[in-house]
Amino acid sequence: MPPSIALWPGAAPGETGKIGPEHEMTKEGDPLTGGRPVVRLGDISTPTITVFRPPAEKDTGAAVLVCPGGGYYILAYDLEGSEVCEWLNSIGVTGVLLKYRVPRREGLPRYAVALQDAQRAMGLVRSHAKEWGIDPNRLGVLGFSAGGHLCTVLSASEARTYPRVDEADDLSCHPNFQILVYPAYLLKDVTGYVLGPEVAVAPSTPPTFMVMTEDDPEHPEDVLAYAMELKRQKVPMELHLYPTGGHGYGLRPTNELVTTWPQRAADWLRNRGLLAHN
Amino acid sequence: MTSSVFRCAWALVATAGMLEAAPPAIPIWPGAAPGERGNIGEEYDSTTPQDALIAGKPAIRLANVSVPTIAIYHAPADKNTGAAVLVCPGGGYNILAYDLEGTEVCEWLNSIGITGVVLKYRVPKRDGQAPYFAPLQDAQRAIGIVRAHAKNWGVDPMRVGVLGFSAGAHLCAALSASTSRIYSRVDDSDEVSCHPDFQLLIYPGGLLKEGQGYTLAPEVAVNSSTPPTFLVMAENDPVHAENILAYAMALKAERVPLEMHMYPTGGHGYGLRPTKDFVTSWPMRAEDWMRSRGLLEHN
After folding, report:
1. Which of A221, A227, A244 sits opposite B262 (nearest CB)?
2. Which of A16, A204, B21, B93 is 20 to 30 A (C-alpha) from A216?
3. Which residue, among B237, B262, B279, would best test binding to A if mutated, counting the most A CBs under 10 Å from its CB?
4. Which of A207, A239, A260 sits opposite B262 (nearest CB)?
């Protein structure tokens, strides 16, 4: 894996050193996903980004910040992180893996520190765009489950939720597009199809791609409600809802059709002109 | 008893299959269709040279249909899976896009081993009736005929689905919601179920109760007996993507297996003619869906 870069020059905002050290929580006997174990990182207090560059001959200049899921308790760091960056590289996209802070910090909304980390990461990537060969206007986000929620919170946020650190924080942290894979927590109330205020949709919400299954225990109502709002606000969207597949499959192929979503996502990226070479 | 007219027609079907010509359209009612009073003009193709092309080709728009028919496109014997699909063209219950959303669909179904049955249902709307009323009679009658002839046609009567476009998709949803025949029994084919085993709704129109947000119209109400459903539509469809969002919500609430693909662009009325819009790749999604449901397994 490429080297990781610390997001914050010192301690992350609000960190008091109570959490840590970071560790892998997967135990022997935990269920396998797509036949393989999953790395579950816990107690993260030093958030990072890791930049996976595509081969030069394939490089399109597009980049995607990848937000693993894990309920804001842990991060499924390979299944919903590094493996996704490798796939992005295969279609000529730079993958930037975000290791955001978990678990939820006491007294704050579950997404609060994760949002700070995501905002900071977007600014940092844009500030290094030239150096990393990235087009700062084709920087998207892709998240799974809680990481999908984090993407939508980031898309809805209007200003940094931490005091300025350096020039990176003067650049926009708004994604140019977003890919939500089995997103969680979008609804204020599961039966009501009402979005939580932190994920409100506006005309400025970026073009959105969504995928989920009807039998997902985290509620496909999330993507249906989000789709209704995107439609209402005339935000371009694509939604693929499959009957079965459950939750937490990442992009490991199984016999469930939903695991073909990377092909749909690549088509969508291409169709939007995001994979056109510089 | 099947009338001698019918027997003669089925013989023609078999002949047509051998000659690989377009199969003949066979009247589904032995006499006049229920309620017909002979006051609808002669059937004709209402497309004019001024009409817009679809994927570079014209489309047939049949008007004044008062003799509803089915035409059976048999799957080639070496590919036949036993599954069959009644295809309902759209056209706002005013006309039928008979090739774009009918015969061309049957040819695609044949290519994946499915028998396609194109339904020519009555249009336009009959005075004093809901727009879908006479078409629903035709669709109910057609499904019964297909099941009644399943053995002869190499069709598995437990794998008879429906596929409709626009108003034709509304007709499929109304058929799935109907609990009994809405016409007087004609013959034995009206004794077998007319409930579809699965349905594919392509850019459906008219599913919503007007002015009621995401509430479905009563004639397309969803319940736990609604068949497994495949939905596809473009967000920029002028007939409103809300149709499939609302239908999907209702299916989810009733735990009916559902698959839905919404693409950003593509508009309305593309049939299955491929264009640069990704929504026109829906037949591949539909084939995968039918295969994953076990519908394409050979007998």
Report:
1. A227
2. A204
3. B262
4. A239
> Which residues does chain A have within 8 Å of residue B259's beta carbon, measured at their own beta carbons?
214, 241-243
**Chain B contacts in chain A segment 188-247 (CB below 8 A):** 193, 207, 214, 220-221, 224, 227-228, 230-231, 236-244
DSSP string over chain B: ---HHHHHHHHHHHHHHHHTSPPPPEESSSSSPTT--S-S---EE---TTSPPBTTB---EEE-B-S-EEEEEPPPTTT--S-EEEEE--STTTEEETIIIIIHHHHHHHHTT-EEEEEE--BSPPTTS-TTHHHHHHHHHHHHHHHHTHHHHT--TTSEEEEEETHHHHHHHHHHH--S-SS---SGGGTS----S-EEEES--S-BPTTSTTPBPGGG---TTSPPEEEEEETT-TT-THHHHHHHHHHHHTT--EEEEEES---S--TT---SSGGGGHHHHHHHHHHHTTTT---
- The three-point CA angle B93-B99-B105 to 5° equals 100
Per-residue confidence of chain B (299 residues) as pLDDT tens digits? 344 445 445 444 444 444 457 899 999 999 999 999 999 999 999 999 999 999 999 999 999 999 999 999 999 999 999 999 999 999 999 999 999 999 999 999 999 999 999 999 999 999 999 999 999 999 999 999 999 999 999 999 999 999 999 999 999 999 999 999 999 999 999 999 999 999 999 999 999 998 788 999 999 999 999 999 999 999 999 999 999 999 999 999 999 999 999 999 999 999 999 999 999 999 999 999 999 999 999 86
Q: What is the pTM of this model?
A: 0.94
ipTM score here? 0.94
Residues B262, B234: Cα–Cα separation, whole Å: 5
Q: Select the residue of A214, A242, A267 nearest B278 (Cβ to Cβ).
A: A267
* A207/B260 CB distance under 8 A: no
Record the tokens describing residue B112, joined without a space.
């994946």
Q: How many angstroms separate the CA atoms of B134 and B130, rounded?
A: 8
Interface test with B, best of A180, A228, A233 (most B CBs within 10 A): A228
Cβ-Cβ contacts under 8 Å, A224 against chain B? 245, 248-249, 252
- Cβ distance A240 to B260 less than 8 Å, yes or no, reads yes
Identify the residue among B229, B232, B263, B278 best suited for mutation to test binding to A, counting A beta carbons within 10 A and taking the highest.
Answer: B263
Cβ–Cβ gap B249/A214 under 8 Å? no
